[in-house]
Amino acid sequence: MSQRPSTLPITLGELVxxxxxxxAERLHLxxxxxxxxxxxxxxxxxxxxxxxxxxxxxxxxxxxxxxWSLAAALHLAWExxxxxxxxxxxxxxxxSAALAERLNMSLLVxxxxxxxxxxxxxxxxxxxxxxxxxxxxxxxxxxxxQTGIRGVLGVLNSxxxxxxxxxxxxxxxxxxxxxxxxxxxNVQQVQVEVHGPGARPWARLVAAVPAQGPAATEQVEAxxxxxxxxxxxxxxxxxxDSSIHAAQEQAAFGLLRRLAAEPADGARTEAGDVDxxxxxxxxxxxxxxxxxxxxxxxxHPSGEPADEVTHLVRASWQRGRANWPLIVExxxxxxxxxxADPDDVAPLRRAVAAFRDPAAAHGLVIGIGRxxxxxxxxxxxxxxxxxxxxxxxxxxxxxxQWFDQVGPPAALAWLPTAEIAQVAxxxxxxxxxxxxxxxxxxxxxxxxxxxxxxxxxxxxxxxxRNTVLARLARARQxxxxxxxxxxxxxxxxxxxALASLWSVxxxxx
Length: 509
Hints:
By secondary structure, this protein is of the alpha/beta class. It is 48% helix and 17% strand.
């Protein structure tokens, strides 16, 4: 792309972003995209009648005596297709604004001397590249003052006015105006990549530019590029603040767990609970009421979550729930809701419903513990929520499991399936080498789950009863003697572990 400054005519929208028109009052701004090819200082109505389209007219003397003269000037400007009319404040009133709006004619009111304003505007219109450079410098100064991503997007949208701008990560607009992503006729999307650490793509700035030719597109792209350093600085500051806060919360929760396990002398309440530490309120935590914990966990855990994932999950979870903590714990994240009524689950249901889409996008499940009072109750609810999340993994991403509905089968969620599969490799070597091992294990598991009923197992598997019999016979030949009482429990556990493991992995041939 050529880096030469554009010599195409400047637009009205660009002029009102720099002095002297930046300080003017906009009684009506009809079309900011209108180009301005020349500035005319009109002292008479005869001069107005000789104006050609796409001029900016500054009224003076006879043409700006107020009342009927301004109304007549606006009508003439509308007839001559003038881009805008500039007039002294002493001349304009409410009726002038109403007429300008009715005619859809841009009318700007100034306090300075009209002659001086006209001279300044003439210089800007005759040298559009210099005017645009000044505009970019002013915009850069405003961008540099911003400390947050939303502030940067606010400056861009304010600067571009009719051109919506959004910051996009993946396919979602995380800041700015979502209208920038909408496909509309005669609108072109301008995109600028924003890089994170190591020059890796992090996000995109997207602007929806009305079809006004290459000049408008180039000017919008130049402003988007101008915003990249401020965005990168704001993003780095946000990540730093988030990392510091996350580390503080993680350390504080670890201390809370220690206090509950080993309370100091005199640190228990009369009810036997642990006194709520004073520093918990400094973090914005509520733990002295009835607490119900939430555990967010990946369907396929792989150790402690990456910082990038934690940052995205935190942003999604705390949207609208800024006072709900989110603490990295093991392979997932802990949060909780504290309230006075243990039976009031409405806030949690709303939070979970709002998080379903992000949970699906990140491959997460949600476990919810029961309501318990105080610090010790919170930690008990956390353990319940984690167990519920393990159970939810069987149903896949975005699954929600309340501990109240789990029951004894929750014990199966804690089985070390990988270790049990290794035992199966040793004890059932022939079966594990068979090509049809998956079908055989699933069939034996179904029969054992159904208490030995072949008809119920066939219905559960969706196969004929004779197929179940044939598979059982083959499984017995390969060492899976499920019907021997002394081995039934161990084989049942092995089949459950293998089926669970194979459900999240591609079965070996």
